[in-house]
Amino acid sequence: MRHIISVLLENEAGALSRVVGLFSQRNFNIESLTVAPTEDPTLSRLTLTTVGNDRVIEQITKHLNKLIEVVKLVDLTEGDHIERELMLIKVKAVGAQRAEVMRSVEIFRGQVIDVTSTVYTVQLAGESDKLDAFIKVIDPANVLEVVRTGVSGIARGEKTLAL
Amino acid sequence: MELLSGAEMVVRSLKDEGVEYIYGYPGGALLHIYDAIFQQDDVKHILVRHEQAATHMADAYARASGKPGVVLVTSGPGATNAVTGIATAYMDSIPMVVISGQVMSHLIGEDAFQECDMVGITRPIVKHNLSIKHPSEIPSAMKKAFYIASSGRPGPVVVDIPKDMTTPTDRFEYEYPKSVKLRSYNPVSRGHSGQIKKAVDLLMSAKRPVILAGGGVIAANASEQLTELAKLLNYPVINTLMGLGAYPGTDEQFLGMPGMHGAVEANMAMHHSDLILNLGSRLDDRITNATEKFCPTAKLIHVDIDPSSISKTVAADVPIVGPLDSVLNELLKLVKASNITPDKEAHGNWWKQIDEWRARHGGRYRTDDSELMKPQQVIEILCKVTKGDAYVCSDVGQHQMFAAQYYKFNKPRRWINSGGLGTMGFGLPAAMGIKLNYPDEEVVCVTGEGSIQMNIQELSTCAQYDLPLKVILLNNQSLGMVRQWQDLNYESRHSQSYMQSLPDFTKLVESYGHVGMEVTKFDELESTLEKAFAMKDKLVFINIHVDPFEHVYPMQVPKAAMRDMWLSKTERT
C-alpha cells in the first residue's frame, strides 16, 4: 500500500542524505520526495511517498525515527489528509491542437503559464492521480517535457505536525 | 574563560570526558592535534600499526567497560582503514567515538591530497556523525558525540575535523558542557507498564518457557536482574553469541547458545517452547534460521531499547521498548507480586524434556578419528587452565564457535567477539585493548591462522606498550569455516580455503621480542598452557596444531527450522 510520510527534520547539512541513504541501505522503496525549510528556519519539512506492507512501513517509520536529526514524523495515510502535487508540463500546440489542449486544461482546472506559437506550458496542481490523468488525455506524442514536484501532504482538521 | 586552540580543545574535551587512552595513528590532517597531545599527560595515546587495530582496541575496551572507546585517525586512508572497525562496533552496538582528521575546509570537494568524504562513507555504519564547521563548536560537538555514542542503543559516532579547525594560533573560549540536550533525540528510560504487565501474565502462565538473553542484557549491565528472574521462575536460559556471560555458563538452568551452531537443547527448547522472553537479542538470521519456520508454537515477548529491532525479523506478541535494566527490575517486581500460580507440573515435564535433549548431544565430539588434537579439546583445557575467568577475545571462524561453545563464561563482558559483522582480524587488537586497560587480568586471543594474519602487525604495538596477553592459535592450516561449508555444500571443492606458505610463527613472534610456543600433541597441551600463563610479563603466542578436518557441530540445516540440525558429519535431528 502507498503511504505518505511527513517528517520534521533538523535543517542541517547532511540531514537529507541520511534519510535518502536509509532507504537505499535498508532496501526500502521511495517513490517521491519533497523537502523545504518551514516557517521555523531550523526545521525542514520532508514528505515522502513509499510503498510497502504494514511490516515494511513500520520498519521505515522506526528507522526514520532513529535518525538523530529526525525530530518528528507522521504517516499521513493513517488518517484523513490532503495531498497535492504540482506539475509543469510543456505541450506541443499547433493548429487544431491549441483549442483541444486548452479544453483539457480547463477541464482539469490548470493554467497556461507560458505560450509560444507552437507550445503551451501548463501548470496543474492536485492529487498525483489527477496529474497522471491529465498526461493520459494529452496525446503522449505531444508532450515535450514534464516536471513534477512530488507529493506534499497535510492532515485534515486540527491535527498538526509541529514541535 | 580559558582560550584554547581547536587542537587543544579536542584533547581537553577528552580529558574532561574522563578518557584515559585513545588509539590512533598520526597524519597530515592531525598534526596540530598530535602536537597538542604531545604537550599534556592526561590523555595517553596508543600508536597502533594499522588504523583498523585502533578501532578494535577502542571497541574491546568499550565492550569490557561499557564506556566509549576513542579513536583518532587521519584523513583519507587513515579514515578508510578505520571503516571496518567502525562497522564492527556498529553491528554490535558498541559505544565508540572516532575522531577523523579532514583536509582544510577550503579544500573539501577539490579532491585534495588524502581527502575522502568520511561523513558520507561512514553514514550507514554509524549511530551518528558530524563535521566541525568552526573551532568553537568542538567542545559541544565532542560532548554530543559521547552522549549519543553511549546513550540509548549505543553505537559509534564519527567527528570529522578539518585541519584548519585546529590551527594553534586561532584560539577560542573553552568550556566543556556538563550535559547536552537534543530535541530530536530522547532515548527511552523505561518500558511501558501495561506491556510489562502483559508480559508478566504470559510469563507466569507459560508451560514451556525459555528466556533468551542477548547482547542488550550485557550493554544494560542487567545480568544480575536476569539471573534473579531466571532463578525466581526456574526457567531455562539461552544466551546468544553476543549475550554469552549474561547468564552464568556453568549454571544448570543454562542451555547454551542458540542458532546456527547452538546447543541441541537450546535450539530444541526454543523450537518447542510456548513462550520466548527475548531480552535484547536482535533475532538475526544466525539465530532464527528460516523465519517462517521459527518456533511455531511460541508467543514472543521482545524487550529491546531499539524499537526497530522489534518485529524486524519475527513479529512480537508483546513488544516492550525500554532499557533492559529498568524493564527487568519492573518484571521482577511484578513477577513477585503476581497472583498467577505457575504450573509446576508442566514445568517439571518441560525440564525433563530439556534434559533428554541435553543428553542427546551434550557438546560431544570425536577424538578417535585424528592423530592431531581437536580444537574443542584446546578450548576446554584453556577454560580449565584459566579457571573460566579470562577475558577471551576471539577472531572469526571455526575457532570463534568452538570458543563460544566450550569456554564457560560465568561473567558478562568477558567474551569479546565480533558477532554481527564477523570481522576477521578483530581478536588480537581486541585483546590488546583489554590487556592495556585491565593489566592484572588474564587476557587471551583465540584465533586461527587466517584471522591472526589480518592484523599480525600489531605484535609490534604489543611490544611497544608491553602487553603480555596470550595468543591461542588453533592452527588447522585452512580457512576452517569456509572449508566446512565447502565440505557440506560444494562436495569438498576447497576453493581458496587453504592457508599456504604460513610463516614460522615462533620465529615471527620472537622477532618482535615475544615468546613463541608450539604444541602438536594433546598430552603436551595443558603443561604448555600452564607454562605460558605462568609467564605473567610476556606475550606468549602458542601455535597449536589441530585436526584440519574437524567441523563445528551442531549446525543448523539451511532454510529449515531451529530444531533441524546436523549433530555430526553423519547424524541429523
Overview of the structural elements:
The complex is a heterodimer of chains A (163) and B (573). Chain A folds into 2 domains: 2-79, 2-Layer Sandwich (Alpha-Beta Plaits); 82-152, 2-Layer Sandwich (Alpha-Beta Plaits), CATH 3.30.70. By secondary structure, chain A is an alpha+beta fold. Chain A has helices at 15-25, 54-66, 96-107, 128-137, and strands spanning 2-10, 32-37, 43-51, 70-75, 81-92, 111-115, 119-126, 143-148, 152-155. In chain A, strands 5, 6, 7, 8 and 9 form a 5-stranded antiparallel beta sheet that branches. A 4-stranded antiparallel beta sheet of chain A has the order 2-3-1-4, with helices on one face. The longest helix of chain A is centred in the middle third of the chain and has 13 residues, at 54-66. Chain A has 4 helices and 9 strands. The two termini of chain A are 28 Å apart. In chain A, strand 6 (111-115) and strand 7 (119-126) form a beta hairpin. The radius of gyration of chain B is 24 Å and the shape is globular. With 573 residues, chain B is α/β, with parallel strands linked by helices. In chain B, helix 1 packs parallel to helix 6 (138-150), helix 3 (51-65) crosses helix 16 and helix 14 (375-385) crosses helix 15. The N and C termini of chain B lie far apart (71 Å). Helices cover 37% and strands 17% of the residues of chain B. The mean pLDDT of chain B is 97. Chain B has a 6-stranded parallel beta sheet with strand order 3-2-4-5-7-6, sandwiched between helices. In chain B, strands 11-10-9-12-13-14 form a 6-stranded parallel beta sheet, sandwiched between helices. Chain B is built from 21 helices and 22 strands. Chain B has 3 domains: 2-174, Rossmann fold; 193-360, TPP-binding domain (Rossmann fold, 3-Layer(aba) Sandwich), CATH 3.40.50.1220; 375-552, Thiamin diphosphate (ThDP)-binding fold, Pyr/PP domains (Rossmann fold), CATH 3.40.50.970. The chains are: A alpha+beta (163), B alpha/beta (573). Chains A and B meet through helix 1 and helix 2 of A and loops of B.
